[in-house]
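User: Before I run my own analysis I want an independent prediction to cross-check against. Here's the chain; please return only the structure tokens and, at the end, one sentence I can use as a sanity check.
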Amino acid sequence: MGLRVHLITGFLGSGKTRLLRDLSAQLPGAIFMTSDTAPVPFDLALLDSSLARFDAGGCICCAGKADALNNIAALAAASEETTDLFVETSGMSDTAGLIDDLAQVPGANLRTVVVLVDASQPLDLLATIREARGQLALADFCLMTHLDALSPEKSVERRDDAIAALRPLVHDDCTILVRPKIGELAHLFSAAPAPSRPWVDRGQIAGLSAHDMLKVSQVQLSGMIEPADAWALAQAILCLNPRLLRFKMRTSVPIEPCEPSRDLIVQIVNGRLQPVEFIPSTWAGETSGLLHMLDPNIGDMELRPLLELFFGSAVSL
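Assistant: Structure tokens:
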């Protein structure tokens, strides 16, 4: 019967993986695909391992595109009844190009494009980045996130400012959602009729490319680190740049005898340090950790002294 495909997109740190986790609790029969610029799938590890889930193997609009489209085609061919597939794109994805590619996959019916926007931050940056503008131009639903991080008074102010800023960037039929209940979202995405989505000429989307603006630092780590030290390392990196867009570190932590091995994931999103999460360890060989960072200002040379302080000399840059 084929797939109903739902694209979950949005710029860096907007909460895409969190939304997937929430939806998975409401839609146990759905399939979930994550996509990221990191070489190791951080986001996939954060989803329940009992789910039908897989990683695109890189950014779905470039490095991971071929494998992702092949997987989607295989899922569509194997589906004996209509199945929902939720695809999380990377924060810098070319949504228009991905929509064009999905149109060529037999049995894959693109149902909704959901764009998440971190409404706790001023939206002036989004208006200058080509990928973000392209995501918003094609949104069927625009979901404002992270308002709960603000005080009630500031939340209302930012909500109103965000709606005013978003309206010129989305098409007329796009629905802007503020704090919807997750059960309502699950029904909306799976049951609503396919909306009328405009065609977008990617060449006419103004702005700078995020791929040109941001450095990608990917660091291979050896050894283990205590959770408190991982937190301290993230705080030190944040001090170097308080407006750091995205920092993800996954590394093994020491355990007691007979305990299962585990990893920690610590993240910085739009200048905010997130709570530490623990997941079962999957490392093999000498590598026991990976750091992935997106930022226009901090490069490998700035990172090396900090990483060597916490991990010793066994750091590959």
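Sanity check: The two ends are 47 Å apart (CA to CA).
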